[in-house]
Every structure is written in C-alpha cells, then in structure tokens.
Amino acid sequence: MTTSMRLLVKQLAQMLKHPGKEMVPSHPRVHKQPSGNDCGVFAIAFAVALCFGDNPSTCSLLIVGTFIGLIVFWSSRTPKSSDEKPFVEVEERLANNHLPNVNDNALEKFNPVVPWPHVEGVEVDLESIRQKNDGKKGPPHPPQAGADNQQEIMQKQYVNFKPQEHIYPDPVLRSGVLGNFELKEPEPQGVSGGPGEGAKPFVLGPEYKDAIQASVREFGFNMVVSEMISLDRTISDLRHEECKFWHYDENLLTSSIVIVFHNEGWSTLMRTVHSVIKRTPRRYLAEIVLIDDFSNKVHLKEKLEEYIKQWNGLVKLFRNERREGLIQARSIGAKKAVLGQCCTAKAIVFNEGGHTQGQREAALKRQKLVVLISLFPELYNIKTICTVPLIDYIDGNDYTIEPQQGGDEDGFARGAWDWSLLWKRVPLSSKEKAKRNHRTEPYRTICTVPLIDSISGHTYDIQPQWGGDEDGYARGAWDWSMLWKRVPLSKREKEKRVTRTEPYRSPAMAGGLFAIERDFFFELGLYDPGLQIWGGENFEISFKIWQCGGQLLFVPCSRVGHIYRLKGWQGNPPPAHVGSSPTLKNYVRVVEVWWDEYKDYFYASRPEAKALAYGDISELKRFREEHNCKSFNWFMEEIAYDIPAHYPLPAKNVEWGEIRGFESNYCIDSMGHTNGGFVEMGPCHRMGGNQLFRINEANQLMQYDQCLKSGPDESKVMISHCNLKEFTEWQYFKDLHRFTHTPTRKCLDRSEVLHQVFISDCDTNKSTQKWEMNNILSM
Question: Which chain regions cross the lipid bilayer (predicted)?
C-alpha cells in the first residue's frame, strides 16, 4: 500500500471511528476514465452505485448509468403531488434524531462523522473539535508514530474559528408597521416632571458653583446635577425614524454586559446599570458583570455590594486585586462573564461606567445583522436547483489553504470559460449582486458597535456627535499619530445599503462600546495582554477583527450615550507598576503587529516613539501568521480606503523634537490647543507631548495632525488641523538656527516675557529668532 493510500485509510478510520489496523481497502477493477477531466463524473457514478447496493465494477456505460442513477435517486426524494406537506416527515425525523428503517441499537453504533473543516468564509480548528468529542467518549487514543505527523500537520493548517451554528432570518423593514421590539407605550418617567427627564438639560444656579467644581475635579463630571436626576430617567430617541419599523427574529443570543469602572461616581455608574436593565428584554440579558478596577472610593465598597442584591444575582461584582487598567479589565470581564454563573451568555456587550444605554436594546439587539444561511427558505420548494460550494485552493506541497483568486471584494466569483472551453472564474457582476438580499456572511465573526451620542457632563442632556454625513452617520478612523477620528459615511458604503438604517462597515471602533460573540472574542485572543491601562486597544481589536476574517459594523438603530470627562478633572494616574508612556507604548505594539510597512507613517508622525521599548510581540505575530490574517495594505484598500482622503499619509520628516529658543530654557508649546488656538512659549520639560514638533519634506511644521501657521493678523502663530497640501510654508535652516515663513519671507520670533510666538522681519542680530530642534525619545 502506498503512503498516500495509508494516510487515506487512516483518515477514513478516524472519521468512521474504526480501528485503522482492521480496515483493509479493496481495489475492484472498474471502467477507466478516458481522460484526465472526467474524474468527478466517474466518482459520482461509483457513489450512486454504492448508495443503491450495486457493484461499481459493473458500471460500464458510465455516463448513462450515472444519469439513470441520479434520476432514480432524485425521483425517490421528490414528493408526490398528493402530499400536502412533503417535508413534515423529514423535519420531524430530523427533530427526533431518527433515521428511517434504523433501530436504536444500530444508531448507537453509528457515530456522527466530524465534518471536514470548511464553512464558507470561516475555518474550523478540527483538532479541538476532535479532542472535545474524544473527551466525551473516553480518553484519547495514543498518537501513532510514522505517518503520522503528516496528518497532525495537515489538521493544524486550518484557521481555528468555529463554524456558524445558528441560522436566523434577516431583519425585515415594514414601513408603517411598528417593529416587534418597539415600545407600544411611552416608557414611564423616573420622576414625573423631574430633573433631566427626556434627556433635557438641567442647570443649577451659581450657589452650587464650588460644589460643582469640586465634583468635576474628583470625577470629571458635574456629579451635583447627576445626583439630582433619577436613575431611571427617560431619554430622547435620536434614532432615524426608519429604525422604528424594523422587525427582528426573536430568537436572539443571550448577552453578558461587562461594565468596567475605577473610582466612578455613584449615580453615573448606577444609572448605567439601571438603564441596561430597564431597556433590555429580560430574556436576552444573561447577566451584568461589574469589574471594579481597584477603586478606593467608600461608596463603591459595601454600599455597592448591598445595592446590587436587589437584582437577585443578575448583577455580579468582581474586584481586581490591583489596578489593571481599562484594557485588561475588559479581558478579565470577558472571563468572569461565564465562570461560576448559573447561565451562559452567547454574546458579550462591553460598556463602561458612565454610559447610559440608549434607544431600545442598544448593542444587545445586534440587529440580526448579517446571517449565514446554508440554504435560503425560498430554495426549499425548488427541486431543479443544483448548489455548488466555493472551492478553496490547497497547496500540494505544504497543504496550506487559501481562497482562489479572481473574485470580487468578498472573494465571490462565477464559473465561466474561454472560447477554447478552458475553465475560468470571473468576479461576481453588479447585475448578480443587485439580485441578492444578503451577502451570506457569518454573523458570529461580526462585531457590532452602536452610534455613540454625547451626554453633557454639565447638564446631562443628550446630543448626537458631530462629524457625520447628512444622517449623522460616521465611520471610525484615525490620523497617522493614532488619534481617534470620525469621518462621514462614504459614497461607497452608502451604495452597499438597501435602506438608510442598516448596519455599515467601519474601519475602527472608539473602543468602549461594542457587542461580540463570546467564543469569537476568545478565539481572537481577547486584547493584546501587553497593552496597559488605556489607549490603542480600540485599534488593536478593530484591525484584528478585519484582518483575521471578521467584520466591524456600526448599527444606526442602536444608540448609546457617553459622558466625556470635563476639563479640570484631576484624572486617575497609572499605578506604579505600569511605568511611563503606557499609551504610546500601546500604539507602538499595535503598529508593529498590524501595520506592516504602514508603520513608517506612524513613526513619521510620532518620531519620539521610534526607540521606545514595547516588549515581546512574537506571540501576536505568530497568531497573525497561524490565522492567515490579511495584510494592512489589503485593509487600507478594501476597508479603510477613505481615511487617506481625510488624513493624508504624512511626508518624511526633515527634523523633529522640541523647538527650543537657542541657548534658552523656553520651548514652543501648543498648550493643548487644536484647530485655531495660539501656540506659546513655556519652560522646556523634555517630555514631548505639547512641546513635540516636526518639520517634514512638504515644509509643514506639525504636531500630530495639526500645522503651525500665521494668525489672522499675520503675526502671532497659531495651530490648526491640516492635510498634506495645506500650510506648506516653513523652512528650517539648521546651521543658521532659523525658521523662515516663506509666504511672508519673515522669521519665527518669540517673547519669553509675554510667552508669545510670532513672525517678524528677519534680523540676524536678534537672538529671539534663533532656534534649535532637539530630539526627544520617549522612555
């Protein structure tokens, strides 16, 4: 027996749970195929013969026999015209797990075959499935030497995302017919006519000024107002009118809500919990998991433990033994969401302290976004349809599996030929796409994000965020220094929609609010364990989802309010074990793992990060390789194609660092101003940040995505957002210690007494026009 035959026998033995040594293949003589192109037809004919108990060696008139066999087989499965419900018997049979004409004893001996690991668009970890099945049946078989390792190697080629398990119909938009999840009556007010009801602003008089300022310093919000507003207040409905008429399948996944907090104010935290419970149908809410990230506020101790008892275990509280930071606390929450719980959630919805869950079920509903359907219902009663799977390419040398080339953006292609009758594949045409109601993609690898509205930290009224299109819709984005941005929904995305309120693709999420199937989140490895405290995790999970086969969708009909911290908040400094620059280190880890050659653009925008120690990322790169994750270039061309139009790729830097007055201890400082503020002179602190600038080959003097330019009086220097072609008006002469403003032919000047930066006529004798740029490396 050849090596390939031995391997085949071994695979068949494992699939049939048959002892491999007792399985002896036979080689009957059969009619030979006349060419190298007929193997499929011959295989079908032999399979039909075996199904009907015939001897394949008797199949001489192959094609005739095949068609006769197929016709007989097909006619035997075709319902008679007298049958009223031809499929009821089959459905009942399947429901009861019974096969016709087979007794229970025979069924006990018939073990289900583990499916070959391919589901359209998703791959399966076959090894884990077999181990799971083996675990139910007893100890695993000892590994056999020899051949062997080849099968083990082949099994590990598959991406280990689990297959689609549930099939749901898509949501249906019925104009004028109120959706099945819509409230039939207005929700009751927390306090009738009380403060903040209907999300209206609540303003206190000047006598509360000191108390308000103190609460903002401690918590970042106006907690004086918050404590006066009901925890069950009503909120305004900011959704598009069309959202009220969507009808969803009611067999939705149950969800765990994970809420992370650290020294949060009482009413903002509890209003979040109340809002989730109030606006979520109980059947879908498995649990609310509160993760206390090492808070030291008194009201978050025994008072909180006693308060949540009113929900009889629905709300669970876990406390970290040290400050982990928002990123790792979320991963801890994902693990706590199932350990020791009485119910198992199928999805995880991440929230943060201070969020108010918005209209309807917010992210819980998940819109039944896009579903994987193996056979559409409308095909069930059509017997003349032949279905064909998409065929992936298995390399004959190393047995890696890749999608075939030649398809559209989803990899979909139609079968074709050239006029010499050679097989070809052509991308799915726009005409065919227009006929589809679905894209047939697996929902379990989709992460959904609600639209996030802004809750005023002063008055607690709710407003939509700005920066979107005419409907207020925006996609998540970034500039090349990794600052979070929002860009209007593009024409390309709008053309993919059938309705104005269906979910749309976004390159990135803001981070704090999203829903994801629990198993998929764990398959992705949760967050990078090397990310610390806060910052960059939203990009890391977004890139990982997109590049490794998932999708990130914004859901217009799901809205959640978010309170942004106010100026004057003293903040929560990172714990001692974290070290300096955790956010910048996080950014570096993300770009080093996911950005490929695009990381050069990050370092052009953040040159101080070039020498930053960011830790070991070998496991993350191995994950990306083993999961056949796509390149960042693919991601930029297919998903994030519109970002460079809003935030152009930065030019190469000429010089960068602090701009220090020559032989001075004062540096130019943006003072945190953006989009129109004036820069000033301040004591040099060598910490970068607001004192870190760069001048590039495009003659832009920049800080992050902002450029320095002359002010309206063409004297004082201000900072403003710019693209690649704007404010290209500076030159730096390093040997002369001079910056010149080319449009006015003047020089950069300063007054350290008045802390001002301006341009004035060039004078080689003026010491205040002399500068030096000194590199600053983050540690």
Answer: none
